[in-house]
From TrEMBL:
<feature type="signal peptide">
    <location>
        <begin position="1"/>
        <end position="29"/>
    </location>
</feature>
<protein>
    <submittedName>
        <fullName>Autotransporter beta-domain protein</fullName>
    </submittedName>
</protein>
<feature type="domain" description="Autotransporter">
    <location>
        <begin position="454"/>
        <end position="724"/>
    </location>
</feature>
<feature type="region of interest" description="Disordered">
    <location>
        <begin position="370"/>
        <end position="414"/>
    </location>
</feature>
<dbReference type="InterPro" id="IPR036709">
    <property type="entry name" value="Autotransporte_beta_dom_sf"/>
</dbReference>
<keyword id="KW-0732">Signal</keyword>
<dbReference type="Pfam" id="PF03797">
    <property type="entry name" value="Autotransporter"/>
</dbReference>
<dbReference type="InterPro" id="IPR005546">
    <property type="entry name" value="Autotransporte_beta"/>
</dbReference>
<feature type="compositionally biased region" description="Pro residues">
    <location>
        <begin position="375"/>
        <end position="411"/>
    </location>
</feature>
Length: 724
């Protein structure tokens, strides 16, 4: 089915779209009411009217996912990331590996056509039971697909009169096949709809008109039995089946209870028990619907209408616990839940430990009570006690190493995808901050390379540092840098070497923090290429190498509004290259030096795994490359024999449009791929300061500011140098 269930196997998280689990198969099933007035009840929020245009589907192996962003289908693959998926319709199901898709599209005549799509881009319009799709009454919709992609189920118009005359159908390579209706000999024309198919393709479930009875009746279809009624609940007015376990032995759905004034109840069906309403533990509810079931059929999830102003509640049912709210399920597993936030549970994982659904304010949630902790290494078997010789004392039996304490794994909790996604972006902060620090190392205190020249045959030593703020856009941090350098002028060329350290702090979402401490080494060569009178052309070549550590605290909202934290540490390394051509024009009143520069930097942050919190994550290795061009000038104005004013003005262009996507896995849940925000590619920088001669040395101070861009917004650079 198009909801997250035992067939889909995993849940992919995105920031480019909100995968609309609120519009999953059970909700779509409800809109195809076929004239059944009992389906429309207020509290649970079933709807009526045309088929929803929204959709969500995910392959069982997690390699492919589809969702919608407004009227745009979005395709995700684990190799290609996100991209618009050009298809004028809705995808409702994916095969196990995502290579085959099922869905429907609406034609110019306003009627729907079922389609089968493949990874090659081919779109096959599936046949109709009646007509060719051009007529006013021609209609077909595909709701679900088997794991192997060979069987698709849905419904199609079955006759010359629209009048609700649709049949549940199955499409295979042999074509379309009507599954018929229940008791077709006396059927009133209500028809039938197939909503789901078991993962193995053996069982199809849905709802059908049954004889002269009004309303729909849930059915189960297999090749051996044909369409078989699952019955109604105490002769209630309606029943519908939405999902089946992996082998089809357990079926869940919704039925009106004839003993409760046709109030709607969630049901679970097995061959042995028949159709049984699910009981709720200590919950007064007015209506209920079961949307999904775990692979073995032991866990059922759905929605309970409570009649309260706070709205309906998502539930999870097992035979041992009855139906309990998602929040109480988590509390029983040891979680602290601050408030009741869930509305409806749309899907459950194969093992029943993860539930996804919708909150009261329409956001998608993920709830998890247990995960499997890593299996500890086995206790080593001790070496056997050697048989002693008659005289020597035998060696004692070695003491075995203690059994490692297993990682307890993530705790129970609930989080919305929006909150989780926003926090995951923090995984890139350390790498971005390192790029900023590398840029400052080359273009902060080191931005005026001609100021570090020594006289021919002389050497120079300097100490320098920068301190700045990094608050452009949504960044909120500070950084400091200190360096010491040495250079020697060999006549035709001067060589400089610098060592230093930078400290980068960034505040992230909800008070989280990233700290990066990076050591660096810089090498630089200055050479005069051409000289004419008072002007000369200089070539400056430089490089920087960096290595350091980062500590990352990622905060996020979970458990109904509480702030939780997961922490991790990792290594950072990178390099940068710079080439500058600079003309220096010297006069008694002014030294003016226009320049052009091209630089390239690359930084990589090793992958790491967080600990703590309910939703820790594993982040993959992340590398970013940036190439920047600079045009500007340096100016120095003598005020007195020992005091000068300095200024810099430059424009910067970054060639890359955005950084690398952040990828990894929320432990025990799913892989993720978070797209980085687009860079501000152009900005200006202005600097002003002074330098003063002190006892054979020179002290300089310069303040810098930039327009909005991928650099610090303001910093102060200080430098002391001495020639000898």
């Amino acid at each position: 089915m198009i909801h997250f269930n035992h067939k889909r196997g995993s849940l992919l998280i995105t920031t480019s779209i909100t995968m609309a689990l609120a519009c999953v198969a059970p909700a779509q099933a409800q809109v195809v009411t076929l004239g059944d007035p009992a389906i429309a009840f207020d509290d649970v929020g079933a709807t009526s009217g045309p088929l929803s245009e929204e959709g969500f589907a995910i392959s069982a192996d997690g390699s492919t996912a589809l969702g919608r962003n407004g009227d745009q289908n979005i395709l995700w693959t684990d190799t290609g990331g996100f991209s618009p998926f050009t298809f004028g319709g809705t995808i409702s199901g994916l095969s196990m590996d995502g290579s085959v898709m099922a869905g429907w599209t609406r034609g110019a005549n306003g009627r729907d056509s079922a389609v089968r799509l493949t990874g090659t881009g081919a779109v096959e319009v599936l046949p109709y039971l009646s007509g060719d799709g051009t007529g006013f009454i021609d209609s077909a919709v595909a709701f679900d697909i088997s794991d192997d992609g060979n069987t698709i189920v849905g419904f199609s118009n079955a006759g010359a009169s629209f009048n609700f005359n649709v049949h549940a159908v199955r499409w295979t390579s042999a074509g379309i096949e009507s599954l018929g209706t229940l008791d077709p000999g006396t059927n009133t024309g209500i028809g039938s709809v197939a909503y789901g198919i078991s993962g193995d393709g053996s069982t199809i479930v849905g709802a059908s008109g049954e004889g002269a009875r009004l309303g729909m009746t849930a059915f189960r279809y297999t090749d051996a039995t044909g369409m078989v009624s699952l019955g109604r609940l105490n002769e209630g007015s309606v029943s519908e089946a939405f999902a089946a376990s992996q082998d089809g032995s357990v079926i869940v759905g919704q039925a009106a209870d004839g003993n409760a004034f046709n109030g709607l109840r969630a049901f679970r069906w097995t061959e042995a028990s028949g159709l049984v309403a699910l009981s709720a533990a200590n919950i007064n509810y007015t209506a209920a619907r079961a949307n999904d079931v775990s692979a073995d059929g032991s866990v059922v999830v759905g929605i309970l209408g409570t009649g309260e102003t706070t709205g309906p509640r998502a539930f999870r049912w097992t035979e041992a616990t009855d139906a309990v709210t998602i929040e109480n399920w988590l509390r029983s597993a040891g979680a602290t839940i601050a408030s009741e936030i869930t509305r409806e549970a749309h899907g459950v994982s194969a093992d029943g430990t993860i539930v996804v659904g919708e909150t009261q304010d329409g956001q998608m949630f993920i709830a998890r009570a247990t995960t499997t902790a890593p299996t500890p290494d086995p206790t080593p078997t001790p070496d056997p006690t050697p048989t002693p010789d008659p005289t020597p004392t035998p060696d004692p039996t070695p003491t075995p190493d203690p059994t490692p304490t297993p990682d307890p794994g993530p705790g129970p909790g609930i989080i919305t995808v929006a909150d989780l996604n926003q926090s995951l972006v923090a995984g890139s902060t350390a790498n971005v901050a390192t790029l900023t620090g590398a840029g400052l190392a080359m273009n902060g205190a080191g931005s005026r390379p001609l100021d570090r020249r020594a006289s021919d045959g002389k050497s120079i030593f300097w100490l320098g540092g920068d301190y700045g703020l990094d608050r452009h856009g949504d960044r909120d941090g500070s950084l400091g840098l200190g360096e010491l350098g040495f250079g020697h002028n060999f006549g035709s060329v001067q060589l400089n070497a610098t060592i230093g350290r930078s400290n980068l702090d960034q505040d992230t979402f909800l008070g989280g923090q990233t700290k990066a401490d990076v050591n660096f080494v810089k090498l630089e060569a200055l050479s005069e290429l051409y000289s004419a009178g008072t002007g000369s052309l200089w070539l400056i070549l430089g490089g920087i190498g960096m290595r350091g550590d980062a500590d990352i605290t990622r905060n996020y909202l979970d458990n109904g509004g509480l702030v939780d934290s997961s922490v991790g540490s990792t290594k950072i390394e990178g390099y940068g290259l710079r080439a500058r051509l600079q003309w220096e024009q010297v006069s008694e009143q002014l030294r003016f030096s226009p320049y052009g520069e091209l630089s390239h930097m690359r930084t990589c942050m090793d992958g790491y795994t967080e600990t703590g919190g309910a939703f820790p994550a594993r982040f993959d290795k992340l590398c970013d490359d940036v190439t920047e061009a600079r045009l500007g000038f340096d100016a120095t104005v003598p005020v007195s024999s020992g005091f000068r004013l300095n200024g810099t003005l430059e424009g910067v262009h970054r060639f890359q449009g955005k950084g690398s996507d952040v990828t990894g896995q929320v432990i025990g849940l799913s892989d993720f791929s978070i797209a980085q925000s687009h860079y501000e590619q152009n900005w200006l920088r202005a600097g002003a300061g002074f330098e003063v001669d002190l006892a054979g040395s020179t002290l300089s101070l310069m303040g810098n500011a930039t327009t909005k861009g991928e650099t610090s917004d303001a910093w102060v650079a200080i430098n002391w140098k001495m020639e000898f």
